[in-house]
Amino acid sequence: MGDTRTTGEQIPVSVFGGPTALIEYGGLRLLTDPAFDAPGEYRRPGGGPGLTKTAPAAIDPADLGPLDAVLLSHDEHPDNLDRSGRALLADVPLVLTTRSGAGRLGGTARGLAPWESVELPRPDGGTLTVTATPAQHGPEGCEPISGEVVGFVLTSADLPSVYVSGDNASLALVQEIAGRFGPVDTAVLFAGAARTVLFDGALLTLDSVQAAEAAGILGARRVVPVHFDSWAHFTEGRDELVKAFTAAGLLDRLQLG
Question: What is the pTM of this model?
Answer without folding.
Answer: 0.91
